[in-house]
Amino acid sequence: MNAVYLISLLITLLPCLVVVACATKQHISYQRDVRPIVVDKCIDCHSPPYGKGYIKTGLDLGSYESLMKGSVYGPVVVPGNSKKSPLNMLVEGRAGNLSRVLNIQHDPMTDDEIKAIRLWVKQGARDN
Length: 128
What we know:
- There is one protein chain.
- The longest helix has 22 residues, at 2-23.
- The radius of gyration is 20 Å and the shape is globular.
- The chain is mostly helical.
- The protein has helices spanning 2-23, 30-41, 52-57, 64-69, 86-91, 97-105, 111-122.
């Protein structure tokens, strides 16, 4: 009798657990979550025409469109793939010397800021 009761309970609770898990998935917005980080941490160097990062790489972070255009080296965001996205590699410290230089010259991003950018890219890097 206990096994039947346990199975019934699990069958009843399983849909609730799925709904709760889906409801707690954090949806990242470029405008609300990512753009403020870019403005605070990156835009000084990556603004045309005189930003040092812009001069070196051609990466303009003034708008979503210019971010997605990338740099003279190619795209910096790979929508849906934060592992291969150069932006994520840089801010997560996976870009070797370039990451070290960035952290020496600027205040490093917080773990929450890095997580927001990672999730935004994983979720498709939409302009929302």
